[in-house]
Design a protein that fits this description.
The complex is a heterodimer of chains A (135) and B (110). Chain A is built from 3 helices and 5 strands. Chain A has 135 residues and is an alpha+beta fold. Chain A has one domain: Histidine kinase-like ATPase, C-terminal domain (Heat Shock Protein 90, 2-Layer Sandwich), CATH 3.30.565. In chain A, helix 1 runs antiparallel to helix 2 and helix 2 packs antiparallel against helix 3. Chain A is globular. Chain B has one domain: STAS domain (Transcription Regulator spoIIAA), CATH 3.30.750. In chain B, strands 1, 2, 3, 4, 5 and 6 form a 6-stranded mixed β-sheet that branches. Chain B is 41% helix and 29% strand. In chain B, helix 1 runs parallel beside helix 2. Classes of the chains: A alpha+beta (135), B alpha/beta (110).
Chain lengths: 135, 110
């Protein structure tokens, strides 16, 4: 399974995106699906840097991609703060523009872009996010 | 990411080339905020050469739209590629944004 380790900095989002884009393209996804995978990974890594590590340069992100006939499985690991995804409410978009809040937007988007999004938090092994995209 | 600005009588055209993510979105945010602080409230945002926009970038657009609306202006998006249009939909925020077919239509709407 191709695996890469990246320092948790926003400037690495481009490289992380390129890493998953190439694998998704090789796996035979169409351009719209490739874009979705890239976007979901970008949202996940942004959340890790911003919320998990609480800022840039405080930890690493390990990204692995496994391509099968059914689709693509992406595993993203970090060693930042743990959280309960069920406690993050979906953003409320049924409000006037002036009351719009960005909280939870990335997580909500990841759920809509990918077929499966699963978080596992383990004290010794760190945090593991598994996302699946079916063909 | 490169940002360029062209001033028209009733609005400013902002064009970005490249990727808008958590690394580059603060630069775009600053560009819009500087213009808003300078008294501007009408923008056409040309996305023809934007190849990626994350939710961090979308929030720059939404916050700019908020600030413009407060001043009776608006942010008009043009040349939004299909992938990005779909992600605006999936992010659930498309209805907060105003999207025009091309630059002429957007500039003419002011």
């Amino acid at each position: 399974m191709p695996t890469r380790k990246f320092p948790g900095r926003y400037e690495n989002l481009l490289e992380i995106g390129d890493f998953v884009r190439k694998i998704a393209e090789e796996a035979g996804f169409d351009s719209s699906q490739v874009y979705s995978v890239q976007l979901a990974v970008d949202e996940a890594c942004t959340n890790i840097i911003e919320h998990g590590y609480g800022g840039e340069g405080r930890g690493e992100i390990v990204c692995s991609c496994d391509s099968t006939e059914e689709g693509l499985t992406i595993v993203i690991q970090d060693w930042g703060r743990q959280f309960d995804p069920d406690e993050i409410p979906d953003p409320d978009y049924d409000v006037p523009l002036e009351k719009l809040q960005s909280r939870g937007a990335g997580l909500f988007l990841m759920g809509n872009l990918m077929d499966e999004v699963d978080f596992r938090f383990d004290k010794s092994g760190g945090n593991m996010l598994t996302m699946k995209k079916r063909k | 990411m490169e940002i360029s600005t062209t001033s028209y009588n009733r609005c400013d055209l902002i064009k970005v080339v490249g990727r808008i993510d958590s690394n580059t979105a603060p630069d775009l945010e600053k560009a819009f905020n500087d213009l808003i602080d300078g008294g501007k409230s009408g923008f056409v945002f040309d996305m023809a050469e934007v190849d990626f926009i994350s939710s961090r970038g979308l929030w720059v657009l939404l916050e700019t739209q908020k600030a413009c609306k407060k001043k009776k202006g608006k942010l008009a998006l043009v040349n939004v590629a299909e992938d990005m249009m779909e992600s605006l939909d999936l992010a659930g925020v498309k209805h907060f944004l105003e999207i025009y077919a091309d630059v002429t239509a957007a500039v003419g709407s002011f």
